[in-house]
Design brief:
Elements lengths: L21 H54 L13 H8 L1 H31 L6 H9 L6 H11 L8 H13 L16 E3 L8 E3 L9 E5 L24 E7 L23 E6 L2 E7 L5 E4 L7 E4 L19 H26 L3 H9 L4 H12 L1 H16 L3 H6 L11 H9 L6 H31 L1
GO cellular component, one term: plasma membrane
Pfam families: BPD_transp_1
InterPro entries: MetI-like, MetI-like_sf, UgpAE/MalFG_permease
């Protein structure tokens, strides 16, 4: 470009290039280095804050979980006094102890049946209550036992399983159903008195009584019995009377040969004595029943001429003991009975969780299956259950862990005489560790055994939750 005076202007001097070398490098790195330092300080600060918040939890975890587990393992290596090191001696003792073996077997029964039954009932309740008008009220009733403590539930079911039908609800129902089809006799303790014409039968007819000699038509027969309390006689019983003779027929009287206050004549009908109403009388000839009759309210009966020359028999059905029901808390049924109480409590828990999972199931899938012609059972089995599989796994694993440490229900419901038969690991742990013959070393070994059995279930649950989290 030309200047105003005609001379050429000098070219513009370019800006100096950025300096190279160490000085320039430091100038460029300083801002970046400051940023990295700031980021590292922030990261350390966040770690410290996280540690400050986690520290109380870690302290509690160590004090309430880690330390007891470690101490139990250490204590299991010593004898009863805690002074003599026995190594694995306590664990070897567990293998030889019959009580521990029974506890392990019963715990296995609990793990197999209790969670499965409770989960199955919860699934059924959750599915069916969706179709019931008062489903919410039903769910409330089923879940209500969860509000009761194990101790209170144990006391309740101790009364429910009482052997006396007048006290135990289970036996009251069972006896009522049994007596509907096989009523009990009103004369369970009746028996012949001294010098009675009746003698006990033997063989297949044992339990009944028969006359010593054959009877004859036209001659009244006397069948005196004793052993029945006056208050236990059937309703409508009337004073006994001697049956009148009838030509060509066998008549007789079965009665209570006992006069209250004394003074009666043996083997003779007195005015103050009561007849046996409703007692079955059979005429037996050559081992066959040729005729039979039932006594009237005054104890009299009449048989046809077929009974002439036969023996009269009072069959054992007249003296059958009243059905006492099932011994729910006996050695054979105590474990299933206690499991029943547990299912009563925890089926509501399973139902609530499964119902929550069922609410998230897409209804379009169910309706599409029904439109395609699937039955309700097919919809339930092939769509509902597979979609609820994660929820069912949660419920099942939770209940398995819960039953592994069941203690209070067994301790309260099972009577002392059958606690050995109902024994479980948690109860055996208590019985071994406390009491007059306490052995803390052996009890600690049982605690470690229980921990070892629970750990696989817990690890499975953790792996399952991680798989769910990845989805």
């Amino acid at each position: 470009m030309a200047a105003s005076d005609g001379t050429a202007a000098p070219a513009a001097v370019p800006a100096p290039a950025a300096r190279s070398g160490r000085g320039g490098d430091r100038g460029r790195e300083r801002p970046g280095g400051t940023g990295r330092t700031s980021l590292s300080r922030q990261a350390r600060r966040r770690r410290l804050v996280a540690a400050a918040f986690l520290l109380p939890s870690l302290v509690l975890l160590g004090a309430l979980v880690v330390h007891p587990i470690g101490y139990s393992v250490w204590r299991s290596l010593f004898d009863r006094s805690g002074e003599v090191f026995v190594g694995g001696g306590n664990y070897a003792e567990l293998l030889r102890d019959d009580a521990v073996r029974t506890a392990v077997e019963n715990t296995a029964v609990w793990v197999v049946f209790a969670p499965a039954v409770a989960t199955a009932l919860g699934l059924v309740f959750a599915v069916l209550t969706e179709r019931v008008r008062w489903g919410t009220a039903f769910k409330l009733l089923v879940f209500m036992p969860m509000a009761i403590s194990m101790l209170a539930a144990g006391i309740i079911f101790r009364l429910v399983y009482d052997h006396d039908p007048d006290r135990g609800v289970a036996n009251a129902v069972w006896v009522g159903v049994h007596d509907t089809f096989a009523p009990a006799s009103a004369f369970p303790r009746a028996r012949p008195g001294r010098d009675s014409p009746l003698v006990p039968e033997e063989g297949a007819a044992a339990g009944g009584f028969a006359t010593r000699e054959p009877v004859r038509a036209g001659t009244p027969v006397l069948l005196p019995l004793v052993g029945v309390a006056p208050d236990a006689l059937p309703e409508g019983t009337r004073p006994a009377r001697t049956a009148p003779a009838e030509p060509g027929k066998v008549t007789g009287t079965a009665w209570q040969d006992f006069t209250r206050g004394g003074g009666g004549r043996p083997n003779a009908v007195d005015a103050s004595e009561s007849g046996f109403a409703g007692m079955r009388v059979e005429a037996v000839r050559d081992g066959r029943v040729v005729d039979s009759a039932t006594t009237r309210a005054d104890g009299t009966f009449t048989l046809s001429g077929k009974a002439d020359g036969a023996l009269l028999r009072l069959p054992a059905s007249n003296f059958r003991e009243a059905y006492a029901g099932v011994e729910w808390l006996g050695p054979a049924l105590v474990t299933p009975a206690v499991i029943g109480a547990y299912v009563w409590m925890w089926a509501g828990f399973a139902m609530v969780l499964i119902a929550a999972g069922l609410a998230a199931v897409p209804r379009e899938l169910l309706e599409a299956a029904r439109v395609d012609g699937a039955s309700e059972w097919q919809v339930f089995r092939r769509i509902t259950v597979p979609l609820l599989a994660p929820v069912l796994a949660v419920v099942l694993v939770t209940l398995v862990i819960n039953v592994m440490k069941i203690f209070d229900l067994v301790f309260v419901i099972a009577p002392g005489s059958v606690q050995d038969d109902a024994n479980v690991l948690a109860l055996q742990l208590y019985r071994t560790s406390f009491g007059t013959s306490a052995d803390a070393g052996l009890g600690s070994a049982i605690a470690v055994l229980l921990l070892v059995l629970v750990v696989p279930v817990m690890l499975y649950n953790i792996r399952r939750m991680r798989r769910e989290a990845r989805r």
